[in-house]
Amino acid sequence: MDKFFLIGIGGISMSAIALILKNQGHIVEGSDMQESKTTRMLRENGINVHIGHDENHIQGDETVIYTAAVAKDNPELVKARRMGLKVYERAEFLGMLMKDYKNVIAVAGTHGKTTTTSMIGYILKKALLNPTILVGAFVKQLGGNFCIGSNQYMVAEACEYVDSFLMFNPTIGVILNIDNDHLDYFKDVNSIIESFRRFAEKIPPDGFVVANLDDDNVVLSLKDLNQKVIYFSTKTATDFWADNITSCNGYYEFDILSADSKILSHIKLNIPGFHNVYNSLAAFAVCYLLGIDPEIIKEAISEFCGASRRLEKMGNLDGILLYDDYAHHPTEIQATISTLKKLTEGQVIVIFQPHTFSRLKSLLPEFVNSLAMADRVIVTDVYAAREKNVYGICSKDLYEKLKEAGVECEYISQFEKIAEFVLEIAQKGDIIATIGAGDVNRCIDLILQKSPVKS
């Protein structure tokens, strides 16, 4: 039995690691800046959580794990290093933890990681394989953002930011897509492609990579790779491909065929958007190759109702639909708005909160193009996340560019004012959607509170 202390234990991934370690019989405690549902849940599971950071929390007999969001001068981190304790960053430790599992499925890609990881996890649960699942959002059908299972299967998101997924030890890799993002860390798209190649090279000889044949950057990253690559597509006959694709009000169904054009299954999605055809193809391919009955896979995918903040329907105010989506990259925003427009004949009114100054700076024209698909846009202040604004840009710059492009838009900084404004302009049949990876979803609560009609 070992002792572990987790700095930032209330985070989505950190809380999951804490419970895995507790489940393995170790002594686990940690600290976080504020009380939350997660910290309370951890205490209910016998894990001591301190609110606030203090060097006295470190006793000298523990292994310390910290999240990347923790400052270098964090008193607990400083003391642990001063005492010469074993200290690991979250991704590094998770990579070590993966070695305890027989099958480790790591889902990578600029977009779609959370949905695809959740979908694979749900299929494995449906197949009674008792997986351990780590996902970056609350998933109702999983009962949270993680599941603690046996050491036979682990499914986890693999994020490319700061090359963190290169610390992982997967046996199966999924690459959904590769897009221009995280340019505060990566030099350009070529360095992103190279990072994904290095991720694919981590797959052992008896494992495989499941990859999107329709994404040119993915194909380039895997060129002449020694590892086994299994492709999926909606355009070309390949290892797993979608044919007879039809849609009704943004919801898709299709046949999945093998390389010899044999129909393996007919899939009917319970979540909207063409991008989810790709996510479900990846999930099907992984689970089929693991030997799961196609009927079980089909049933699980048809039941899967998505992760929180992924085109999540939040309410209905007398015919005005409220949606929330985590999209924070122009490609994701385009997919989200395109799907929303298929869900209504009314207007799509978007409340958009840019996520990080660096992303807004590097992709400003692309943000304008994607948001221009909406009927009306309300831009609010940038959610800075890990950054300080040293980029010379703000949300008003996006607002001005949208105006120049002829987009009907407003800039409103206060969420209260946004809620009041959209309730004034929205009509029956319209959709109001909050879009962004920050806290813009708080606007939904304010809209519901201020509306005379309760959902």
TrEMBL record:
<dbReference type="InterPro" id="IPR013221">
    <property type="entry name" value="Mur_ligase_cen"/>
</dbReference>
<dbReference type="Pfam" id="PF01225">
    <property type="entry name" value="Mur_ligase"/>
</dbReference>
<feature type="binding site">
    <location>
        <begin position="109"/>
        <end position="115"/>
    </location>
    <ligand>
        <name>ATP</name>
    </ligand>
</feature>
<comment type="pathway">
    <text>Cell wall biogenesis; peptidoglycan biosynthesis.</text>
</comment>
<dbReference type="InterPro" id="IPR036615">
    <property type="entry name" value="Mur_ligase_C_dom_sf"/>
</dbReference>
<feature type="domain" description="Mur ligase central">
    <location>
        <begin position="107"/>
        <end position="287"/>
    </location>
</feature>
<keyword id="KW-0131">Cell cycle</keyword>
<dbReference type="InterPro" id="IPR004101">
    <property type="entry name" value="Mur_ligase_C"/>
</dbReference>
<feature type="domain" description="Mur ligase N-terminal catalytic">
    <location>
        <begin position="7"/>
        <end position="101"/>
    </location>
</feature>
<keyword id="KW-0133">Cell shape</keyword>
<dbReference type="InterPro" id="IPR005758">
    <property type="entry name" value="UDP-N-AcMur_Ala_ligase_MurC"/>
</dbReference>
<dbReference type="Pfam" id="PF02875">
    <property type="entry name" value="Mur_ligase_C"/>
</dbReference>
<keyword id="KW-0573">Peptidoglycan synthesis</keyword>
<feature type="domain" description="Mur ligase C-terminal">
    <location>
        <begin position="309"/>
        <end position="438"/>
    </location>
</feature>
<comment type="function">
    <text>Cell wall formation.</text>
</comment>
<keyword id="KW-0067">ATP-binding</keyword>
<keyword id="KW-0132">Cell division</keyword>
<dbReference type="InterPro" id="IPR050061">
    <property type="entry name" value="MurCDEF_pg_biosynth"/>
</dbReference>
<dbReference type="InterPro" id="IPR000713">
    <property type="entry name" value="Mur_ligase_N"/>
</dbReference>
<protein>
    <recommendedName>
        <fullName>UDP-N-acetylmuramate--L-alanine ligase</fullName>
        <ecNumber>6.3.2.8</ecNumber>
    </recommendedName>
</protein>
<keyword id="KW-0436">Ligase</keyword>
<keyword id="KW-0547">Nucleotide-binding</keyword>
<dbReference type="InterPro" id="IPR036565">
    <property type="entry name" value="Mur-like_cat_sf"/>
</dbReference>
<dbReference type="GO" id="GO:0008763">
    <property type="term" value="F:UDP-N-acetylmuramate-L-alanine ligase activity"/>
</dbReference>
<keyword id="KW-0961">Cell wall biogenesis/degradation</keyword>
<keyword id="KW-0963">Cytoplasm</keyword>
<comment type="similarity">
    <text>Belongs to the MurCDEF family.</text>
</comment>
<dbReference type="Pfam" id="PF08245">
    <property type="entry name" value="Mur_ligase_M"/>
</dbReference>
